[in-house]
Amino acid sequence: MLIEPRQPKYPWGLEVRAAIDLYNDGSLPDIDEDQLLIAAGGPGEIVQIGHHTEADLPLYMVDFGLCVLGCLEEEIVPSDLPLPAPAPEPEPVGEDSAR
C-alpha cells in the first residue's frame, strides 16, 4: 500500500517570517555551528518546497536575504500572521528549585 506524502501547508512564493531564532545546524560550513542566522521575526520568502522522505515532512527552502535555509513548518509563519508566543524558560534544576 502506497502512502501519500504529507502535503505542504504553505505555497511556493509565500512571504514568511522566522517563527523562532534559527541557528546554523552545520549545514552552512563557512559559518560557526550554533551561530544565530536569523532572529525570530526575520522576513523571508519560500523559494522551493521539498520533502523529507523518511520523516514524511515538507521542507521549505526560505530565502531570508542573508541566506537560504531549509525550514520545517513549525519554524516559519506567514508574514500576515502573528508570531507564536515564545516557549517558557525551563525551571532551573538544583538546590534552590526544591522549594
TrEMBL record:
Taxonomic superkingdom: Bacteria
Record GO biological process: nitrogen fixation
Start and end residues of each stretch annotated as Disordered: 79-99
Listed InterPro entries: Nitrogenase_MoFe_mat_NifZ
This protein's UniProt keywords: Nitrogen fixation
Keyword Oxidoreductase on entry: no
Stretches with biased composition (Pro residues): 81-91
A family per Pfam: NifZ
Family designation: Belongs to the NifZ family.
Protein name: NifZ protein
Organism: Sphaerotilus natans subsp. natans DSM 6575
Organism ancestry: Bacteria, Pseudomonadati, Pseudomonadota, Betaproteobacteria, Burkholderiales
